């Protein structure tokens, strides 16, 4: 099998966890804990390499990608070095709306002297020179214009696009149509995590529905200490994030029983610096069961947010490459439904996993 040539937009903590996780599995060849699919279309996690990268941080642009993943404000230090980045150098990306007011002092964006059009030309040249085939979007939440900029580049360079953030590209019919017409795979939007707050909340909600109970009220509050949570202090950047997380839970509640807006709250709550990459989620469900008798449940979940993201991205990247190999374009419906919070088509997680596995088997033949 040839290597999967991946480009990344946003060399932050999520990407650092993805790369260092791949290195962990390379060094521990018999360790497969945390890998949902050992092979996808013949590809293993060790077949992923990162050949282009784009960022705006002063401490990252112009640096080797293998070094930039350790630069502040990244906290991930799982391994001391990585081998999947080769001699890739981080190139300058346009800032647009990619840096929020609360994280500017942490990211320390470079002073840009080039016009957006010039940066676009340079980015496309870099992707073509490095033969980038899959583009991974790890921009901060709220980066609407910046994400659309990179989705456009993916279309113009015939590069598969994986959108890990809650800006609606793969789930937007107009964007999806453009990817389909060009025969380019797209997966998104908003990565769901391996064992995260949303997948846990969805599982609990489905448990209630499947057992005939009614859900009356529910909330999910998340706190953490990395740049993601600092960025989300800027509430106007959270509109699509709240939509994505809320719909991910509401989609499992039958029509006629869906919760009123006042009875469901799902979203980040605060930034606690000393937590670093640790994310704490507090989930509560109130409802009624047999004979209308009330119940409530509360769950506290503590996870490393970047391990949650990396475990999904290694699968999404390989699904995108498999689609490229087979000439399949447009929204990868089952991959999006299983790996993302806001897919074009919402499904229960069990159904999405079953259909995704069937798709992988069929397409891999």
Low-confidence stretches: none
Spatial strand arrangement across the major sheet: 3-2-1-4-5-6-11
The first-level CATH class of the largest domain is given as Alpha Beta
Order of SSEs, N→C? EHEHEHHEHEHEHEHHEEEHEHH
Radius of gyration, whole Å: 20 Å
Please, how many helices? 12
Mean pLDDT: 96
Give the terminus-to-terminus CA distance. Answer: 14 Å
Helix content: 25-40%
CATH topology of the largest domain: Rossmann fold
Q: Strand fraction band?
A: 15-25%
Q: How would you characterize the largest beta sheet?
A: 7 strands, parallel
- General shape: globular
> How many DSSP-defined strands?
11
Please state the second-level CATH architecture of the largest domain: 3-Layer(aba) Sandwich
* Domains (count): 2
The CATH H-level superfamily of the largest domain is NAD(P)-binding Rossmann-like Domain
- Structural class assignment: alpha/beta
